[in-house]
Amino acid sequence: MTEREPRSTGRRRLLVGVGAGLSLAAAGCLGDEGASITPISLDGERACDQCGMIIEDHPGPVGQIHFEDDEPEGGRPGQFCSSVCMYTYRFDAEDAGRTVLAAFLTDYSLVDQEVFREGSDTMFSSHVGSEAFSRTTDLTVVARSEVVGAMGPELIPFSDDGDVESFVDEYGGEPMPAEDVDRGTLEAL
């Protein structure tokens, strides 16, 4: 009987190991579901899903979210006129049980932005072409800078650390990973 115990223990370990490996493999496959998603262009008369404003008519960063269920957007990603609108919508959707596969924001490291003043506000140009976006997982946003967007105080995204430093030197603000933004971040703007 003592000979059987080690064999069954060995089998159990093998089965547990195989089961754990399969679980990790399945999780990896599920995690890759959003890896092939690419951003779309947000030009034309596309309205923000959070506030209803026409996206390309307003300055500052814009965003999009691709959800697992494609609803209620009807098979297209959620589309937003500002990073604040995108995050607000995302948090509400996640609270409702929706799963984000990929989220994108304007990447000011990829575009030649124009800086302009409107009254006393400093603003960055809007870029709505698909090539202007990067995944939020690859971005650093700057909060509480002098630069505002379509909805006022804004989170300004960059993929290049040097661009973040230059922006903060010129316009102030506090950099943070885009994936660390939470409701408290938005409230503090």
TrEMBL record:
Composition-biased stretches (Basic and acidic residues): 180-189
PROSITE patterns for this protein: PROKAR_LIPOPROTEIN (PS51257)
Domain of life: Archaea
Region (Disordered): 170-189
Name this protein carries in UniProt: NosL family protein
